[in-house]
Amino acid sequence: MSYCVLRSKSAGYSYLFVPGLHKTISMSSLKMIGGVVASRRLSGKALRSQSAELSVLLAQNKFTNLRTMASKAVTMENINPNIVKLEYAVRGPLVTRAGEIEKELLKGASKPFKRVIKANIGDAHAMGQVPITFIRQVLSCVTYPENIDKSDFPEDVKQRARDILNACGGKSVGSYTMSHGIEMIRRHVAEYIERRDGHKSDWNNVVLVGGASNGIKNCLQLFINDLDGKPSGVMIPIPQYPLYSASLAEYGLEQIGYYLDEDKQWGLDSAELERSLTEGSKHCNVRAIVIINPGNPTGQVLTRENIEAIVKFASEHNLFIFADEVYQDNVYAEGSKFFSFKKVMTEMGEPYSKMELASFMSVSKGYMGECGLRGGWMELVNFDPDVKANLFKAISAMLCPSSLGQAAVDCVAKPPAPGEASYDLWLKEKTSVLQSLDKRAKMIAETFNQMEGFKCNIVQGAMYAFPQITMPPKAIEAAKQAGKAPDVFYAFQLLENTGICIVPGTGFGQRPGTYHFRTTILPQPALLQEMLDIFKGFHEKFTKEYS
Amino acid sequence: MKLEKCVTIDNVNRNLLNIRYAVRGPIVDRALQIERELAKGASKPFNRVVRANIGDCHALGQKPITFIRQVLALVSCPQLMNSPDLPADVKDRATEILQDCTQGSVGAYSPSAGLMIVRRHIVEYLEARDGVSASLEDIYLGSGASDLIKSVLTLFSGVVDGKPPAVMIPIPQYPLFSGTLAELGINQANYYLDEEDNWALQVEELERSYQEASEHSRVVALVVINPGNPTGQVLSRQNIEEIIIFAHKHNLFILADEVYQENIISKPFYSFKKVMHELGAPYSDMELASFVTCSKGWAAECGLRGAFLELTRLSPPVRSVFAASRGVMQCPTVLGQCVLDCIVRPPRRGETSFAQWREEREKIARLLAERASTAYSTFNDIPGYSCNPIEGSMFAFPQVEIPALAQEEAADLDMSPDEFYCLRLLEETGVCVVPGTGFGQRPGTFHFRTTILHSREEFQHMMESITRFHNNFLNRFS
């Protein structure tokens, strides 16, 4: 534990004390590997041995010796300390273990299950979702323009491909584009936003990015600056998507957690926002707030009133708003509707309509699920022009986002219109994906709620359920013996016994003393049903065993 | 109530203010403006802008390699698998790649280090190149070399024992390095390339730079760009050996930017990995990061954003930290990874696409060599110009004498003389090149970088425009 204390001094991240566990959890030690969210408690067994090893080395002054012996130029002693903070979560054993089990199964190992079900990551195609034909046909035409003449693709596909190629240098997707993306596509995105919100969007404020994560990191880095001797802090929801905790740690920014209200469908409560801000302001300048809507991992869709309250709060405290709206097309529940922050702010009028906002969108989610193509956009609203210029400058050193990711963005921002050749098929595919997700969202929450010891909010949107589980005291004890958090312990048992891979709540953060996990709703319906049946059986057995 | 912006120039990340990236700086912006003016019918002494500011082959008319594009078309739209127009080896390759994608879709995330099959082919490529074994675990794919270079440089950030880190970079250099170092708050320790000795690295100069920087910083790494950008030299084996010995002496981590290794014009390329290996211990145990991209070489697929990094002999915990940091961004673009696969494992003799691939590749190499020699002789014929031979890469970086009168006028306009020169060149001829200031140069010398990728006719036009402009410039300012 002394290691934790040492780190908390040097790092200054928010640490939570979990009553009854006598353990300290670093909220910043959350991290993802290989696109898979994983987490690790600093108190984990493996880490203990690791830190023990480290302290022995430090005691022997080994690292210094190594350095003077000139065997390695970069050592754990002189490496960027912010990057190291990301390390421990990474060997997050759960996902690694799932990979190992898959290999064991291939080699014919005998297990109580035949396959690993990866419900840990929002990767729709990996779970068998079929790509949208229009997008893929356009991609094949822009990469190999002969297809425009030779293929029997619909005319609107060919025309789209021609339009995109005409906007590329030398009519090739192999040319660099502008750093913030192809102008035509930025205009299409602005038009998309105008249709969505019913308000003006300036294409000059739209920046295409190689995946939303990229854009989010670029905007977060604006805040790296110790003003008046205090570091900058950013408010993020708990539970949150760990890109935020990881990026804040990398940038040396303070993470100020605010809890979502599980009893109010994971809404944001103004009193809790105030509490979090007041606490954060003691040691840093709180400068921005992140909102994930629809929520990841929590699946809520914020009401308009809730968004208004958040906007007012941000305005009152002069906070910059990050609106992570990548699941804006994934809204299922009756009565739920997606409102963008931009729309609500605009309609609230001044001073709210003048607030700074960055909103993020991705082709990885929605009905398209094109994760591997790395396409997305951000809309930068009301930025100081000098700040925007400096942000663009930083982006320009990375040259440009993938032209093919941009082409996918174009297909999403300007899908086939009624009357065009691809329209019917596109609509059918889109509707079928979204309807199926809708069905799965309901199925999963209903099934969990029928299970003893489970409590699951309605999955109003996004691609995940985040149920709370009651952990029998004996299981908590057993977890402690195993050197694991109870939810991590549970997830391991689940994996080893059933092959189902989920992410424990610790990876996202949760109220002390509560236990959750995140599962995607992405397995195709038959597989999802199978998964839920297996889950039920496992949970009954687990509860019996530990009570 | 809100009075001012949350983020202003006064409270924004200061490191961002220090970034300069001339390849896309004010002169390029002005070129864009001029293009718009021309489109609106403005009257200028020229009818088009010639973009020579960026190594962007396709934008300048180079045709994509058919094999690469056919594979891309097929992996993105597998319904074409039955198309009679696509060769068998293209179908085989696409099938092989798709089998390595989860559920056979390039729309699924790949592992953050990249698809296994691509990494395996990269290992084979490196082993064939160097005759030295390579390891799958050392290969990381990225969305462009810049992405990977930034990740590696991030390792060095942070103050240790009260001293900020510094990284040695060549002057002239590719401004990605200075820009990224500024962004990360790492000090830049400059060492000058020796223009008189065809832009070689002189150990004495490396020592000077190291000692000077060590007074206030902890020098941790050395960047070498070979073949050189913007300078176009290909380092001799002996020079590489000297650099390695120097780096070893001071325990420096070597970053070898070797993205132009397939753009070799007149001199053999030796990778740092190969030379280190052949030098034997202790040099063969040194850490090394080497970068290759699909944006350069014969493929020149800049827009597709594919690159890889070979990261050798890191200490195991440092390697884990690095792998972890790459995971945050999920994965590099899968289609960019497919391009890399085609590059490191191109069609082989006997395969259907081989003949066409070889022909396309040879044509590209021939044109590059031709432009390099034309640029070299033309520039050296202009009075007041001198230009080293272009041994590799895709750039010329001539030195230009700028008359004192012109320097004064530049100072009045608050510009450096070479910026002034390049801006005038743009305004009078439409030729857009990047002033030496953007790359760094010895004080009192003036250069610019131009790409040599244009079609023969366009290249001729550019060379004539520059020659004519320079004569006028001299008349006016002397």
UniProtKB/TrEMBL annotation, chain A:
Keywords in alphabetical order, please: Aminotransferase, Pyridoxal phosphate, Transferase
What sort of enzyme, by top EC class, is this?
transferase
Kindly tell me the pathway this chain contributes to: Amino-acid degradation; L-alanine degradation via transaminase pathway; pyruvate from L-alanine: step 1/1
Catalysis performed (reactions): L-alanine + 2-oxoglutarate = pyruvate + L-glutamate
Highest taxon of the source?
A: Eukaryota
Q: Which cofactor does it need?
A: pyridoxal 5'-phosphate
Q: What GO molecular function annotations does the UniProt record carry, in alphabetical order?
A: L-alanine:2-oxoglutarate aminotransferase activity; pyridoxal phosphate binding
Q: What is its EC number?
A: 2.6.1.2
Transferase keyword on record:
yes
Which InterPro entries does this chain map to?
ALAT1/2-like, Aminotransferase_I/II_large, PyrdxlP-dep_Trfase, PyrdxlP-dep_Trfase_major, PyrdxlP-dep_Trfase_small
What Pfam families does its record include? Aminotran_1_2 (PF00155)
The Aminotransferase class I/classII large domain covers 153-530
Similarity field: Belongs to the class-I pyridoxal-phosphate-dependent aminotransferase family. Alanine aminotransferase subfamily.
Q: How does it assemble?
A: Homodimer.
Q: What is this protein called?
A: alanine transaminase
Write down the species. Answer: Leptosia nina
UniProtKB/TrEMBL annotation, chain B:
Its EC number is 2.6.1.2
Q: Subcellular location, in the record's words? A: Cytoplasm
Q: Which InterPro entries match?
A: ALAT1/2-like, Aminotransferase_I/II_large, PyrdxlP-dep_Trfase, PyrdxlP-dep_Trfase_major, PyrdxlP-dep_Trfase_small
List required co-factors: pyridoxal 5'-phosphate
Q: GO molecular function: any one? A: pyridoxal phosphate binding
Reactions accelerated catalytically? L-alanine + 2-oxoglutarate = pyruvate + L-glutamate
Write the lineage as a comma-separated list: Eukaryota, Metazoa, Ecdysozoa, Arthropoda, Hexapoda
An annotated GO cellular component of this protein is: cytoplasm
Q: Which UniProt keywords apply?
A: Acetylation, Aminotransferase, Cytoplasm, Phosphoprotein, Pyridoxal phosphate, Transferase
Q: Which organism is it from?
A: Leptosia nina
The Swiss-Prot or TrEMBL record describes its family as follows: Belongs to the class-I pyridoxal-phosphate-dependent aminotransferase family. Alanine aminotransferase subfamily.
- Describe its function: Catalyzes the reversible transamination between alanine and 2-oxoglutarate to form pyruvate and glutamate. Participates in cellular nitrogen metabolism and also in liver gluconeogenesis starting with precursors transported from skeletal muscles.
What name has this protein been given in UniProt?
Answer: Alanine aminotransferase 1
> Which Gene3D superfamilies does the entry mention?
1.10.287.1970, Aspartate Aminotransferase, domain 1, Type I PLP-dependent aspartate aminotransferase-like (Major domain)
Annotated pathway: Amino-acid degradation; L-alanine degradation via transaminase pathway; pyruvate from L-alanine: step 1/1
Q: How does it assemble?
A: Homodimer.
Give the residues annotated as coiled coil: none
Provide an example Pfam family for this protein: Aminotran_1_2
Where the record annotates domain Aminotransferase class I/classII large, the positions are 100-466
